[in-house]
Amino acid sequence: MQKQIRKTCNGLDLEQMGQTVAALKSDPALAQFQFRAHNQWIYGGENRSTIRDFYGAGAEDTSRDKDFVFTNGEPPVLLGHNEGANPVEFLLHALAGCVTTTTVLHAAARGIKLRKLSTELVGDIDLQGLLALDDSVPAGYESIRINMNIEADCSEEELSELIAFAQRHSPVCNTVCRPVPVTIERVNTMRIAA
Amino acid sequence: MQKQIRKTCNGLDLEQMGQTVAALKSDPALAQFQFRAHNQWIYGGENRSTIRDFYGAGAEDTSRDKDFVFTNGEPPVLLGHNEGANPVEFLLHALAGCVTTTTVLHAAARGIKLRKLSTELVGDIDLQGLLALDDSVPAGYESIRINMNIEADCSEEELSELIAFAQRHSPVCNTVCRPVPVTIERVNTMRIAA
Question: Is the distance from CB of B181 to CB of B144 less than 8 angstroms?
Fold first, then answer.
């Protein structure tokens, strides 16, 4: 059996990337994705999500043969027992990952090879908001700062432009920077409807 | 040694909660928290965060004796190998957990006992934004819907008011609903500065 040699850049299959972009250009409806999570409260500040199925590229995805499971917790200073990272920390993980993957993706699309990419994120938050102690204090992050250590085989100018482009096109970064509507509806049974 | 009996509600220590609120009221600077994450790109759509230290309540936290480690990945349809949930899915996990914990916290503050609380989240996203195929399409979630199954020992009216209050005071929900500034700065070494 002959092993197929695929051309990759930054670990991404360039042929598949090209096919995906061509498919979405010819039928933009394929770009509609729906992601999902189920979460169960355990006790106190502990709760657990299971993530597996999603809809995208015109079909329900069937590539995952088991659930991803993640536990939120709180540190003792926030009344918990470090059962897991806390939700605002998971948000930083999501943001770090999304900015990174978006940078890797658009670098590959431009033929820029990355040698390394790491980030550290700091998010400042005033818990008077969460605790409803001061109505003028927002409950969420005041701001989030990303320090990025990146090396690539391109000019400084190209790299700066790539990072700015990735920041504007990162789904999680955009969700944080832009007001995104969240609705809560009470239901008696758990069943995700498309 | 006599075991101390602590009064709890929904798994939260009411005495500690009262002390925390009293401390923050007398010195609001104690409510300033800074959360952090370090992330390392692995290859393709895979990257990994470590989360441990944070600043809050006037001091660096020292309660955690090991890192939390989380891996972002992508499914095959998004050029990955399901190395982990993807960043926009982790965002849903963060949002689910935060709305849940905020509900549990403010229920306890009101003396409302929760019998159960679970949520399912769906987030719709058009990947033409990420892929820069259409500048009019935002890169992030168009909207996120939370279905909540909750039972508590209070009236329907009190429960509805509690949920609406928790939605407004959840840090992750507020970060998603409100435009929060994110900045990226290139650095040559990784070192989080307060």
Answer: no
- Which residue, chain included where needed, has tokens 């550290």? A120
Nearest to A41 among B68, B118, B137 (CB): B118
Contact criterion met (CB below 8 Å) for A47 and A71: yes
C-alpha distance from A1 to closest chain B C-alpha (Å): 22
Give the distance from residue B3's alpha carbon to the nearest chain A alpha carbon, in angstroms. Answer: 18
Q: How many contacts (CB atoms, under 8 Å) link A and B? A: 483
Q: pLDDT tens track of chain A, all 194 residues?
A: 556 678 999 999 999 999 999 999 999 999 999 999 999 999 999 999 999 999 999 999 999 999 999 999 999 999 999 999 999 999 999 999 999 999 999 999 999 999 999 999 999 999 999 999 999 999 999 999 999 999 999 999 999 999 999 999 999 999 999 999 999 999 987 665 43
Q: CB distance B28–A56 less than 8 Å?
A: no
The ipTM is 0.96
Half-sphere exposure of B81 (CA within 13 A, CB side): 9
CA distances from B169 to A91, A134, A135, B39, B101 (A): 16, 11, 10, 28, 11
State pTM to two decimals: 0.96
